[in-house]
Structures are given as C-alpha cells and as structure tokens.
Amino acid sequence: MASSGPPTVETIAQRAGVSIASVSRVMNGHGARPDTVRRVERAAAELGYVPNAVARSLKGGRTRQITFAMQDIGNPAYVSMFREIQAVTRPLGYRLLLHSTDADAAAELGVVRSLADRTSDGLILCPIRVTDEHLTAMREAVRPIVVIGSLPEGATVDSVRADSVSGAALALRHLLESGRRRIAFINGPADTVPGRNRLLGYEKALRDAGVTPERGLTETTEFGIEAGAAAAHRLLDADPAIDSVFCANDQLALGAAHAAQDRGLDIPGDLAVIGMDDSELARASRPLLSSVDLGSAERGRIAARMLVARLEESPPPPGSPVRCETVAPRLVVRGSSSPLGVGSGIPA
C-alpha cells in the first residue's frame, strides 16, 4: 500500500528493495555498492524525497553543504571563483550554497555566526572590509572558514589572497613604457582591502618611475560600470590631457571605456584603459580590454581545497598552523592599451 505521508527512509527502502541501513549509508555518504546507490537514488527521486539537512547534521555532524559568501554574485570575478569552488567540491559530494552580502558587514557576520546552526559544514568568505568584529567572529566560529582576501597579521583562519599591489605596478609600468605620462586611476572605495592595496600599487609604481602621484588624477567611487563611466567623465572634464586610465577592476574599466567613446575618443589612440581581474568583461569589450589577472579562478580553487582539507581532518590536529597562500598577478595586454601611435583599428 502506498504511503499517504511524505517519503521517508523506510518508504525509500521499500521502493528500492533494500534495507533501511543501506538507505541510511547511501544518504549519509558512508559508502555502498554502486547498484545499491543507484537503486536508492532512483527510489528517492521517484518518491520526491528531500533530505532534511538540519536533522542529518544534528545526527551525524555533517551536512555535505558548503557556503560561499561574496560581495556581489553578478561580479564576473566571483563567478570565476564560484565555478572553481564547485568544480572542487561537487565531485566530493558537497553542495554549494551562495550568499551575496553586498559588502554589508552585518550580513557577513551573520553568515559566519550561522555556522553554529549546522546548516553548513564550512564557509568560504570574500570580505572586502575586515574589521576586528570579523576577526573575532571567525576565530570563534564552530566550523572551518577560509577567506579569499588579505587578512591582518596574526589572523587565525586560512586564507588565499591576490597581490593587488604588484598587479597595479604591472599595469602602471606597461603604461609608462608605452609612452603614457598622464595616468589617471579610478579606484573603488578606499576603505576596502582591494581599494587600499590598489591605490598603494598605483602610487608606488609612479614613484618608482620618478613620477609624483597627483591627487587630481585619482577618482574614488563604487565598484561598477556606471560608477566607472561617471568617474572617467569627471577626470576628463578636469584634465583633458589625461592619456590613460588604470581602473581597480574590469567593471570600472569598461565604464571608463564607455565614457571615452561617448566623448569621441579613440581607445587606445587618445586614451589607454586597463582594468583588473581579467574577467569575461575584458574579453567582451571593444577594443578588447587589457587587464591584470589576479587569479580569481585559482584563488577559488585553492580556497576550496583548503576548506575540504580542514573538513577531512577529524578532528583537526591541535595547534594546526594557519594556511595562507598568495596568487601572483599577471598582466594581459590587449587592444585597449597599445603604445602611443598604435591605434586599436576599431572606431570609437
């Protein structure tokens, strides 16, 4: 007789023709014969069974779920991270939960503290601001956390970071060697980790080349295409002699390129443009956008491996050292930053 209630482990066992213990082993990832796994999964699908992750975690301590929290899921850099995190974790039987925080500290702290609810086995977090409250919450977290980003010395969680300072220097050296001298900088919020590091790299590269940074050549705004366009218009209105713009991410750079083209400027003949992240936007623009590859995909892959390694430690060794890796940047030169005198070949 068919059950009138919701599907259970017992009804799945009846449908699959196996024992309840076999169903339990399959559902909890404890191993079973391939034929048994197929029969149980088929029966569960036919019955519309949805496992209760909270109940499973209370019983066995594991949910097989991992959370990835980032500022904006629409940012191509985070999309690259997500793909690599999933590529590492999915074959191991983990589901990936996404949380877009809008860089709101309360939302980020909420995600960290929610690990105590046992709805997720671990967290990969991408904060663009790191406060003392962040550090305290991560230190007290009951589940493993890996941060994609820079952390202060002495932080007690694993992390993988980009070298934005060196990346900015790569872009500036390329522009200077290409004959550019009035190099403007469009940055994201200066109180963020990426904003602070990219400004540092911009100013350091200029000083190393014997050029004094000018405050009037730097615009600080939000990360985004429209913000980049507005910032570029302000810079060019104030100083039409600007011959190049370095931007703190590809979204800002694409906006700057749009602003230049709206003004009838040729890219790169009148204005060279370089972004950061080497995201899909860089390969979709016209002309193709030069950009500093900060290894978004690689950082996602390393973070996922770090977290899985922590999850597989049962329990973690006492005094297990914090792991920190840095991904080296790479400048990808395309049509938007050809040397002076070499046009893009594409009308503005």
Automatic annotation (TrEMBL):
Keywords: DNA-binding, Transcription, Transcription regulation
Protein's UniProt keywords contain Transcription: yes
MF terms in GO: DNA-binding transcription factor activity; transcription cis-regulatory region binding
Residues forming coiled coils: none
One Pfam family it belongs to: Peripla_BP_3
SUPFAM superfamilies (UniProt xref): lambda repressor-like DNA-binding domains, Periplasmic binding protein-like I
HTH lacI-type domain sequence ranges: 7-60
Keyword Nucleotide-binding on entry: no
Xref: PANTHER family: HTH-TYPE TRANSCRIPTIONAL REGULATOR GALS, LACI-RELATED TRANSCRIPTIONAL REPRESSOR
Name assigned to this protein: LacI family transcriptional regulator
